[in-house]
Write a structure and sequence with these properties.
Catalytic activity (chain B): tRNA(Phe) + L-phenylalanine + ATP = L-phenylalanyl-tRNA(Phe) + AMP + diphosphate + H(+)
Number of domains of chain A: 5
Structural class of chain B: alpha+beta
Organism (chain B): Candidatus Harrisonbacteria bacterium RIFCSPLOWO2_02_FULL_41_13b
Number of strands of chain A: 31
Radius of gyration of chain B: 40 Å
Strand order of the largest sheet of chain A: 18-22-23-27-26-25-24
Strand order of the largest sheet of chain B: 1-5-6-10-9-8-7
Subcellular location (chain B): Cytoplasm
Keywords (chain B): Aminoacyl-tRNA synthetase, ATP-binding, Cytoplasm, Ligase, Magnesium, Metal-binding, Nucleotide-binding, Protein biosynthesis
CATH architecture of the largest domain in chain A: 3-Layer(bba) Sandwich
CATH topology of the largest domain in chain B: BirA Bifunctional Protein, domain 2
CATH topology of the largest domain in chain A: Phenylalanyl-tRNA Synthetase, Chain B, domain 3
Pfam families (chain B): Phe_tRNA-synt_N, tRNA-synt_2d
Shape of chain A: elongated
Order of helices and strands of chain B: HHHHHEEHEEHEEHEEEHEHH
Largest sheet of chain B: 7 strands, mixed
Oligomer: heterodimer
Number of domains of chain B: 2
CATH class of the largest domain in chain A: Alpha Beta
Number of helices of chain A: 19
Structural class of chain A: alpha+beta
Distance between the termini of chain B: 75 Å
Shape of chain B: rod-shaped
Strand content of chain A: 25-35%
Number of helices of chain B: 11
Helix content of chain A: 25-40%
Strand content of chain B: 15-25%
């Protein structure tokens, strides 16, 4: 929020020059900036609107920091009454309005404001309108209490603070017609709405050039109610924002007195009755200050009187070790709040660094954190690069991307930031496929992976899963088998004892111990992708690897080449080869080809390398020869093969 | 022929030969099974008298063994030379490119930060990215219908959840990693110290320093006598390990609803002060929300932006590069 340096000058004695003031604000009070102009931009915390969104409030904080004396504002010594014969006030909605004050004033003619006042308004980004409206705004800037002036002659009957009727309309000062609901609070007379309470005045009783008699409003409205209305109407005014944060009812009285003073001084007004309808309960917060507790919480080693002196400068009442916050300090609720005041004024510069006392306990990491780290290292070792994509997607053409959940739907945002970011990603592959295309402009070979969360809406609720997505895009090759091989290395690297690739159409389903872990597919001939459920993988990993003694006996290697129907799946053959003989230690496909001229269109040639080994003895050629015969006859039973 | 002459000739020839082929020719000439000169001599021994046989035989066999050993020795030598010389290799050619994958700079940064905090006895935990408004706001002392919530521009989901018979909870994308403080404390008792890395979301326009999703690391230490001075110690250690021993840092007053007192941490780099972290002592209302006795425990919490630290550390000037998927960027790390 913007504040005027020249107004600070009027109310802070010995105010530091602007650069030093900014420094002081930043290190003892609130974040602030502003260079070269006559104003300062100060960030007021959301819990400090009651005491600090005003020049006087900040002057008190600045004075407390510099140790200079605070100059109080001149307030008229008016006395409130509960009713008047000139005007009536009632509050029908006490829940939304705890205090409502009206101050009667009359003057001969409406003057324009003096230049110094116009300058202060301008520093704070406000336009001068006429001296009455300007005084209302000026007092708000000084004290923090929003004020409003009605033309008393345009009000018929009593002023009532009530909830609007559903559909009730009001025309605001800027001429906009707004439709209200029964949640919105109104200031109304007997006939019409006069203002949207705490947010904006209406046309009906607007102060105008003919105005001679006014009623000044200073009130306290419920923050949540004002905030709801402002949000619903999307109408954010200075006054509305202040009320929404919550203000102390105490400010009402200061606002009225200061307004009375300035109306006299500036507008030459004659001040009449002040009617104050007050249902508010000003509970004073009394806290016990324990300096030991303060030093334990902060690590400082301050004396009690030093601490109390800081609080005193901030306007706290001190009686022994009991402290009472000033009535506008609505943020002070607990001991910790007092501690913050003292720490800030004392400054962090002198805070010591002290090693914490800790119980010796090994630090740990969640299993999924460990798996993520391990996966990343492995995949980088396999030549894949890591990318991060947005969690948002445009939509989904292919429902198969949500393979891990039946009948799942996309998770939709209520307030998407863009058309192409309306949903949460159900799969990492959408991003990875785009990454491959993008990178193909610079690189023929793209090997990437991403680890991240994916989302889907299921019947029971919302699912959030940790996934690993991989994509290989090789412009001049078919990357499917490379990806499959990388996955083999990946799974054994993370400590998964066994996994299977089960063909499902053109895809492979990755299974382990009867759990589906993910899918591998050729998105197109030159792009292969896979997605793996890491949450599931975590539960299947056997952390301990166990050493198996190397066989003392030599192994015997035999190659087996044969021709088989082109559509026969290698996986099925491999399966037989691996399981037919106990002596087969390992089976690898070492060569395969299709050749129209040599083999015809419907045949392919496969060469497997079989490694035979026993852990008990040296195998003989004869023995292995017999096993090979068994292998071949087993294949012949199942497939139409021709051994080469 | 005199054995000595033969011996000298053969050894001389072996010595002079510089390649395997030439060596083989010499071997055939003298030790060849068919016409090798020494072999012929050996073969002719059978025609000699027993006495001569006894005299020449052992000498001839001895010579044969000696020469064979010399051939083998030379052959090994030549082979070794071939292996070592690689006469046609230009060793100044650039090395072959062996494909290696690169980790994302945010991963590298997170790993480094995790390492540092683990060395300081902090454990690593994570939490969900979709949260309820209770965990993201209410439990952290950010009440509904208060503008304090506007400090976090929030993405809301269409889907709601029924948390109890009468209460419907709104779902949102967490705006910070702080909800994990609540989730962790609900299930664990102090003392403990944790860090929480994770992705967070803000509904705001993107530019060189703002993204709609980014990453934070939350820290939380709770115990009987944890103080602000302890926080200063931990964070000083952290900053020194991350940025070097000579790093300068400072604290400034700040405001967060879930800490009291609250502060901001700046570091000095290249003459400029940069904001890197928000922190403070855990607010008693946060302890109340997790049913801790706020009179008996204290704690500090902090939150730092991973992108921001990575941008400072690696001198990256646009946050959007992290989410570009551009390998020309990734491969620099």
């Amino acid at each position: 929020m913007v504040f005027s340096y020249s107004l600070f000058k009027k109310i802070v004695s010995k105010i530091p020059p602007r650069p030093q003031l900014l420094e002081l604000l930043n290190f003892r009070i609130f974040e602030a900036e502003g260079e070269g102009k006559n104003n300062l931009e100060i960030s007021i915390p959301a819990n400090r609107y009651s005491d600090a969104v005003s020049h006087f409030g900040l002057a008190r904080l600045i004075s407390a920091a510099t140790g200079a004396k605070l100059i109080d504002l001149v307030l008229a010594s008016a006395k409130s009454r509960s009713e008047s014969d000139k005007f009536q006030i009632k509050i029908s909605s006490k829940k939304q309005c705890s205090r409502y004050s009206g101050l009667y004033a009359e003057f001969s003619n409406l003057k324009s404001s003096p230049q110094w006042l116009k300058d202060v308004l301008a520093d704070c980004g406000l336009r001068s309108i006429n001296s009455v409206v300007d005084v209302m705004n000026y007092v708000m800037l000084e004290i923090g209490q929003p004020l409003h002036a009605f033309d008393a002659d345009l009000i018929s009957g009593a002023i009532d603070v009530r909830l609007a009727k559903n559909g009730e309309k009001i025309t605001t000062l800027d001429g906009a017609e707004l439709k209200l609901t029964n949640q919105d609070l109104l200031i109304a007379d007997d006939k019409r709405p006069l203002a949207i309470a705490g947010i904006k005045g209406g046309k009906t009783a607007e102060v105008n050039t003919q105005t001679k008699r006014i009623i000044v409003e200073a009130a306290n409205f419920d923050g949540a109610s004002i905030y709801r209305t402002a949000r619903r109407l999307n109408l954010f005014t200075d006054a509305g924002t202040r009320f929404a944060h919550g203000l102390s009812p105490y400010l009402v009285e200061r606002g009225i007195r200061r307004a009375a003073q300035l109306l006299k001084e500036i507008c030459g007004a004659k001040i009449g009755d002040w009617v104050d309808v007050d249902y508010s309960k000003l509970d004073k917060t009394v806290l016990k200050f324990d300096v030991k507790k303060f030093n334990a919480l902060t690590g400082f080693n301050l004396e009690e009187k030093v601490c109390l002196e800081y609080l005193k400068r901030l306007g706290f009442e001190i009686k022994g070790d009991l402290v009472t916050a000033p009535p506008e300090r609505m943020d002070i609720e607990s001991f910790e709040d007092l501690a913050e005041e003292i720490v800030n004024l004392h400054s962090y510069d002198e805070l010591p660094a002290i090693a914490p006392k800790m119980i010796l306990k090994p630090s740990g990491q969640e299993d999924s954190v460990v798996l993520k780290s391990k996966s990343r290292k492995l995949l980088a070792g396999l030549g894949l690069n890591e990318v991060y994509n947005y969690s948002f997607v445009a939509g989904l053409k292919d429902q198969n991307f949500i393979w891990y959940s039946n009948n799942a739907k996309l998770v939709e945002l209520e307030n998407p930031i863009a058309e192409d970011k309306k949903y949460l990603r159900p799969s990492l592959l959408l991003g990875l496929l785009k990454n491959v295309e993008d990178n193909w402009r610079f690189n023929d070979e793209v090997r990437i992976f991403e680890i991240g969360r994916v989302f889907a809406e299921e019947k029971g609720g919302l699912s959030e899963k940790l996934m690993l997505g991989l994509a290989l895009g090789l412009k001049k090759q078919r990357p499917f088998l490379e990806l499959k091989g990388s996955l083999d290395s990946f799974f054994s690297g993370v400590g998964l004892l066994e996994h299977d690739f089960v063909p499902v159409g053109d895809n492979l389903r990755i299974e382990s111990d009867h759990h589906v872990l993910g899918y591998v597919r050729a998105a197109q001939a030159d792009i292969a992708v896979a997605e793996i459920d890491l949450t599931k993988l975590v539960s299947l990993i056997q952390e301990e690897k166990e050493y198996r003694p190397l066989s003392k006996y030599p192994s015997i290697v035999r190659d087996l080449s044969f021709i088989v129907d082109a559509e026969t799946r290698v996986g099925d053959i491999q399966n037989i080869l691996e399981n037919i003989s106990k002596l087969v230690e390992d089976v690898d496909l070492v060569d395969w080809f299709q050749d129209e001229q040599k083999l015809g269109t419907d045949k392919k040639s496969l060469t497997f390398r079989l490694v035979f080994q026993s852990e008990e003895r040296t195998l003989t050629d004869e023995e292995v020869g017999k096993e090979m015969e068994r292998v071949v006859s087993a294949l012949e039973k199942k497939f139409d093969i021709e051994v080469r | 022929m005199d054995f000595d002459v033969l011996r000298r000739n053969v050894l001389e020839a072996i010595k002079k030969t510089q390649d395997v082929k030439g060596l083989e020719q010499i071997r055939i000439k003298y030790l060849g099974r068919q016409d090798g000169e020494l072999i012929k001599i050996l073969r002719s021994l059978k025609d000699l008298s027993v006495e001569e046989k006894r005299k020449l035989g052992p000498a001839a066999n001895f010579l044969r063994n000696e020469l064979e050993a010399a051939f083998i020795n030379k052959l090994e030598n030549l082979k070794l030379k071939i292996r070592n010389s690689q006469s046609n290799l230009d060793v100044t050619l650039p090395g072959k490119k062996v494909p290696v994958g690169h980790l994302h700079p945010l991963t590298l940064m997170e790993n480094r930060i995790r390492e540092i905090f683990q060395s300081l006895s902090f454990s690593v935990v994570e939490g969900p990215e979709v949260e309820s408004d209770y965990y993201n706001f209410d439990a952290l002392n950010i009440p509904a219908n208060h503008p304090a919530r506007d400090m976090w521009d929030t993405f809301w989901l269409r889907q709601k959840v029924q948390s109890s018979k009468f209460k419907v909870q709104s779902l949102l994308l967490r705006t910070h990693t702080s909800p994990v403080q609540i989730r962790y404390m609900e299930k664990h008792q102090p003392p403990f110290q944790i860090i929480v890395p994770g992705r967070v979301f803000r509904y705001e326009a993107t530019d060189a320093t703002h993204e709609i999703n980014f990453h934070q690391i939350e820290g939380l230490m709770v115990g009987e006598d944890v103080s602000l001075a302890n926080f200063k110690y931990i964070i000083e250690e952290f900053l020194k390990q991350l940025f070097g021993k000579n790093i300068h840092f400072r604290f400034r007053p700040s405001y967060f609803p879930f800490t009291e007192p609250s502060l901001e941490v700046d570091i000095q780099l290249g003459g400029k002060w940069l904001e890197v972290m928000g922190a403070g002592m855990v607010h008693p209302k946060v302890f109340d929300a997790v049913k801790y006795n706020s009179k008996e425990v204290r704690g500090f919490a902090f939150g730092l932006g991973l992108e921001r630290l990575a941008m400072i550390k690696y001198k990256i000037d646009d946050i959007r590069l992290f989410y570009s998927g551009d390998l020309r960027f990734i491969k620099q790390f």
